[in-house]
Design brief:
The complex is a heterodimer. Chain A is mainly α. In chain A, about 80% of the residues lie in helices and about 0% in strands. Chain B has 2 domains: about 5-125, Four Helix Bundle (Hemerythrin (Met), subunit A) (Up-down Bundle); about 125-165. In chain B, about 75% of the residues lie in helices and about 0% in strands. Chain B is built from 6 helices and no strands. Chain B is globular, with a radius of gyration of 21 Å. The model of chain B has no long low-confidence stretch (mean pLDDT about 85). The chains are: A mainly alpha, B mainly alpha.
Chain lengths: ~100, ~170
Amino acid sequence: MPIQYYLFLSMALFCIGIMGTLMRRNAIIIFMCIELMLNAVNLLLVAFSKMHNDGSAQVFVFFNMVVAAAEVAVGLAIIVMMYRKVHSVDINILNRLKH
Amino acid sequence: MSLYQICFWVLTVMALGCALGVILSRNPVSSVLFLIATFFAISGHYLLMNAQFLAIVNIIVYAGAIMVLFLFVIMLMNLNADTEPQKNRLVQLAGVVSGGILFLVILAALRSSSVNVLEQTPTDIGLIKNLGKTLFTQFVLPFEISSVLFLSAMIGAVVIGKKEEVA
């Protein structure tokens, strides 16, 4: 299986994540699209690890998962707190952070 | 067409279709379920590439822990209705076009790169023994730093999520 297939697959997943981030208004869905992009990168790292026969990339994927888990914990806490204040997770309502 | 190729294409179609389902479905709960299916497809790809440990960790951590956290939050906020306000058509179209243009640009840049075929040789670098050796000898300092990161994320989540006292 050529490495390019994995390259194109993870690129397509990454771009789907970007489209979702730009299209949706629900903050939780945007978070999920960010998770999708992280997973696309992880997939490509594993493919390159297999190509070079080197285990370091898989350890890097492991650290990626650690960072994603920490990010989700803090991010969901922020979203829950925001929901308590304004009773919505619509990001169009949250643009008052500008002012 | 070998069994390996059939598995590859089935998993690829499943991953892409479920990823599209994540961003297209109106209901947040079905978005979460589509994302879990995407993670299972990606874990299947890991298995095809002899990364057994990462496949299991991906299922346990992502599909098991992170997605359950998302489901908890969605159900706690009672968001499982289809009442999400949509962005207007122009903004949605702009999002799709910019994502598609990014895809086309990277595709055009990488199309002419040299082809390396991933041969189906059985390797054992993905086993937990070898990964553990690499993790605890070569990457022991990042490992300790990530434990500090976890601790700070945990404390941060508790502090943020705590109810404010009436001042």
